[in-house]
Specification:
The structure holds 2 protein chains of 2 kinds.
Chain A lengths: L3 H17 L6 H25 L8 H16 L5 H23 L4 H21 L1 H4 L5 E2 L6 E4 L2 E4 L3 H23 L2 H11 L1 H6 L4 H27 L1 E2 L6 H14 L6 H19 L3 H15 L3 H9 L6
Antiparallel strand pairs in A: 1-4, 2-3
Chain B lengths: L1 E12 L2 E12 L2 E6 L6 H9 L4 E8 L2 E2 L13 E4 L11 H10 L6 H7 L1 H4 L11 H14 L4 E5 L7 H16 L3 E5 L3 H7 L2 E6 L2 E7 H6 L2 H7 L3
Parallel strand pairs in B: 3-8, 3-9, 6-7, 7-8
Antiparallel strand pairs in B: 1-2, 1-4, 4-5, 9-10
The chains are: A mainly alpha, B alpha/beta.
Subcellular location (chain A): Cell membrane
Membrane topology (chain A): Multi-pass membrane protein
Organism (chain A): Paenirhodobacter populi
């Protein structure tokens, strides 16, 4: 085991998230379900931005690929939910591989612009093909796509408990997979590329392939989140493909701490709760969020967990 | 036996030619020191061997195999390791992780050997590389290169600005590498360091090798160094 303390924390967090459903009910369960799914999105983004050092402004594209891949398969294909879920993941994986092959020919600001352009093209495509996608009105998944059977048991996604536990299961799988990836040899190479791509190349590594792997893993995990979101809440719409989604996942990661395993979860939780609370107090909540972000950026430039890692807990990464 | 041979190498930086038909050979178990003034082409030669500076003409042969056309990331996999000027460590990674990155490329199993050359690193495996002293960082850069199990080592002024104790450790390590049959091409400006460990010395100026001489001859007549590079 590479980082025992981080692994212990991972297990403790998963146990805590499992146990918390027995002490909360109603809206908080729904909110936590949503936070877990969006945290998966941010964890995917973190692979690229936090661990590999590539800032994308277009990850809404991969979230949307998962969302539409799963949603359209369930809506039009009438396939079982697990198959629809797999279709969403496959769509995101293929799209991220193709976009990665093209976008990674650029770097830094150009890379940000190219990823943004791809995402905008995807967003406009969801509007243009509104006869299929439902455009900005979106599509509500039919009743048959709101339940599935597992080991002879019918599981209804209208149940908040079922949704929470499914979201938690997917979150746990992604978290453990990312623990293994980022704390192992591949994670070292991602970090090496982030710190000094030229030196990494001089040590004998194909930097382009490492970046492509990170991009594809990142996009695929974002697609997992998108597919899960669409199926859990029974709705797919073009708003999820908007630029705002790309910015939100960037902020979740920045606030929590890029390049830390739990940064995305912390960032998503803080930002989601903040927006929920502030939007209940004022319609100008985004101004308050912006001010808070500036303060956080000034005082915690490496995010909440990034700062804690640098000052007190180097294992927290 | 010659491990690294450079034949008629022409290299340009934009329109400016930095290496002009350069020829050089380093045998296994030999330390060849390359001396020359700033801008003579020493670092450019190393970068050209590693494939990060495009060659206009000439060849680089490793143990008789032409590696001139290889992409830069494949050159180390053939057994050439480069320790650049300024160390270029992965500062946020630990000592152990830096070594692991060096080792993974060829799975050479040389980590223990590298640590035996620099025992101080063994006490700092969990420490972030960026927090090491300058001498330790240089040792780590060399150890990381050794972890790949190279047959040829290129080192660009590894002792620059270091304490005498660190210089002595690095010198001992290079002598051990020579004993293991590694061909060492060392860019070095300090005459004392050159005379202490070199087998041969090549003087470079304006992208050409001016002269090659056994280090023994320089030990007998240090004026030769002043004559060729004005150092001493």
């Amino acid at each position: 085991m590479r980082n025992l303390r981080l692994f212990a924390l991972t297990i403790a967090v998963l146990a805590g998230l499992f146990g918390v459903q027995f002490v909360i009910s109603g809206y908080p369960v729904l909110a936590l379900t949503r936070i877990l799914i969006l945290a998966v999105f941010a964890m995917g983004y973190n692979v690229l931005m936090g661990y590999t050092g590539l800032v994308s402004l277009g990850h809404a594209l991969f979230f949307a690929a998962g969302l539409y891949g799963a949603g359209l398969a369930a809506y039009y294909g009438g396939v079982a939910l697990p198959i629809a879920f797999a279709a969403g993941i496959a769509a995101a994986a293929v799209l991220s591989l193709v976009v990665g092959l093209l976008a990674l020919r650029t770097q830094t600001v150009s890379f940000m612009i190219v990823t943004l352009m791809f995402a905008q093209a995807g967003y406009l495509a969801t509007l243009h093909f509104s006869a299929i996608t439902g455009g900005d009105q979106g599509l509500s998944l039919p009743a048959h796509a709101r339940s599935f059977s597992l080991l002879g048991q019918e599981i209804a996604l209208t149940s908040a408990t079922a949704r929470y536990n499914i979201a938690l299961a997917v979150f746990a799988v992604v978290l453990l997979a990312l623990y293994a990836l980022t704390q192992g040899p591949r994670g070292r190479l991602f970090a090496a590329v982030r710190e000094n791509p030229e030196r990494t190349r001089m040590l004998g590594y194909d930097v382009g392939r490492i970046r492509l792997l990170a991009f594809t893993v990142s996009g695929t995990i974002s697609g997992v989140a998108g597919a899960l979101y669409g199926l859990m809440f029974g709705f797919i719409g073009s708003s999820f493909a908007e630029f705002r989604s790309s910015v939100e996942v960037l902020l979740f990661t920045l606030v929590g701490g890029p390049g830390t395993l739990f940064g995305p979860l912390v960032g998503t939780t803080v930002m989601t709760l903040l927006i929920d609370r502030l939007s209940g107090l004022t319609s100008a909540y985004l101004i308050a969020v912006g001010v808070l972000l500036i303060v956080l950026t000034l005082w915690f430039p490496k995010g909440i967990l990034g700062t804690i890692r640098d000052r007190w807990a180097p294992w927290l990464r | 036996m010659t491990l690294l041979r450079i034949e008629a190498l022409d290299v340009f930086h934009g329109a400016s030619q930095v290496l002009r038909g350069l020829d050089l050979a380093v045998a296994g178990g030999e330390i060849l020191c390359l001396m020359g003034r700033n801008g003579a082409g020493k670092t450019s030669l190393m970068r050209a061997i590693m494939g990060t500076l495009p060659r206009r003409a000439g060849r680089v042969l490793l143990d008789g195999t032409d590696i001139s056309a290889l992409p830069a990331h494949l050159v180390p996999r053939y057994g050439i390791a480069h320790v650049p000027q300024g160390r270029r460590l992965f500062a946020e990674l630990t000592v152990a992780e830096n070594l692991e990155i060096g080792e993974m490329v060829r799975h050479a199993g040389q980590r223990d050997f590298a640590l035996s050359l620099f025992p101080v690193l063994g006490d700092r495996l969990g420490q972030q590389a960026g927090t090491l002293s300058g001498g330790e960082q240089t040792m780590l850069a060399i150890a990381r290169a050794i972890c790949a199990g190279p047959r040829v080592m290129l080192l660009d002024e590894p002792t620059e600005g270091l304490m005498p104790s660190a210089i002595a450790t690095i010198r001992s390590a290079l002598i051990r590498l020579r004993a293991e049959g590694v061909a060492v091409l060392l860019v070095e400006q300090r005459a004392e360091a050159v005379l202490a460990m070199a087998d041969r010395v090549a003087f470079i100026a304006q992208g050409r090798i001016l002269a090659e001489t056994p280090a023994e001859a320089l030990r007998a007549d240090r004026a030769l160094i002043r004559r060729y590079v004005g150092l001493g």
